[in-house]
Amino acid sequence: MLESSLSSSQSEASVAPGIGTLFGVGVGPGDPDLITIKALETIRKVPAIAFPAGVNGKPGIAEQIAERWVHPRQTKISLAFPYVLDSDTLSEAWKVASETVWSYLAQGQDVTFLCEGDISFYSTFTYLAQTLLQNHPDLRVEAIPGVCSPMAAAAALGIPLTTQGQKLVVLPALYTVADLETTLDEADVVVLMKVKSVYEKVWQMLNRRNLLEHSAVVEWATWPQQKIYTPLSDRPSLDLSYFSLLIVQKQPFSL
Amino acid sequence: MLESSLSSSQSEASVAPGIGTLFGVGVGPGDPDLITIKALETIRKVPAIAFPAGVNGKPGIAEQIAERWVHPRQTKISLAFPYVLDSDTLSEAWKVASETVWSYLAQGQDVTFLCEGDISFYSTFTYLAQTLLQNHPDLRVEAIPGVCSPMAAAAALGIPLTTQGQKLVVLPALYTVADLETTLDEADVVVLMKVKSVYEKVWQMLNRRNLLEHSAVVEWATWPQQKIYTPLSDRPSLDLSYFSLLIVQKQPFSL
Known about the structure:
The structure is a homodimer.
Chain A: H1 2-13, E1 22-26, H2 37-44, E2 48-52, H3 61-66, E3 75-79, H4 87-105, E4 111-115, H5 125-135, E5 141-144, H6 149-157, E6 168-171, H7 177-186, E7 189-192, H8 199-208, E8 215-219, E9 227-229, E10 244-249
Parallel strand pairs in A: 1-4, 1-5, 2-3, 2-4, 6-7
Antiparallel strand pairs in A: 7-10, 8-9, 8-10
């Protein structure tokens, strides 16, 4: 059944208008098999695949995840998105990236942009797509959702992320300790994305609130190098990588 | 490549211990192609497929989503989970469901339980698995994450759900107006799940806060009957189905 589904989609893809379509695809959290059938089709039906470049000469994260699904004959477009906060530097990078992608779209080639996790959840795709749409308002853009890392981390931990009635809060890396205090007052479940740089401060706060027993860190969720740290009681500091998130449950699940 | 991946997983699955393994699989928000390769493998490698029963004699939601991926020869286990809040009624339902599933596991058969969306995100699987584990602590349970509806809705709307630095709050159906007021004070992006029963009250609040222009309702995200309502300014009431969610962005995305 998978076969026929893939081939029907491939024939549909050969309709090429004047300018190509930009597809954005969430390739999932890391395990290549956590990609969706639709994402896979959207990779296979285009001539060109774009993705954020890796650092230090390594392949990018999304590129690594999707490696087995991309055909050697497909054009690879590696786009540099610097890991900085300076908005001028970022705008310039999005502009350069969008011009690179446009050079393919303008020739009528469809381009699929890969991102790690889900395409709408803290993703670089937003900036790329919006920069392109600013200059080319008629561009057709389609987003394909994917599995995001909080869900993957909960599954790896064997816990529900949320159950009936629970309020979930997701905080990205850029939060203050005061933000986190308020959030812990209110939420039932809190996910701290990219917890590396703030882990020690967060640990102190969770310790004060007696929440370390119900907290867990998942590093590289679903990758071969996945690591799980729980409970956190005896771990005031951890040497974490960039892909680490922390889940706090104010009440552990019970029936 | 997909082929070899599927068959290697199938051979691995034929290792049968004394009792079967319970797999929980998120089948995605609705479009059957938004299932992951891993979920598909986990459906195909077991003899028995369980899912929440539908209402009024119709197939269940997860059952409908996965229909094309389940083989006619696989055993179907339809489990009744009443849509009520009474905890005695619910506990009794989980007990009955867990005994049904156990009758297969006890014979050494693996069972894959399907749920709509993601397996850890407001999912019935949690209750089924925990009820089983209470009575059978040695049971092996494995959860496979899936694409959840907020991500699918954002992709359908063509907007980012969250961008750099934004705080996301997800509220399930069971919240008070006061909860929502506090949440809107603090969050950058709010997702209200199952908004049907509270839509009119929510509309009033968003109207008072001038947030209707940045709000959208997505009904049946990624299903053929998907409907999008945005902006909400001229929609003080909507006749929504059970599978409707509302996304509020306090600041619309801009570069």
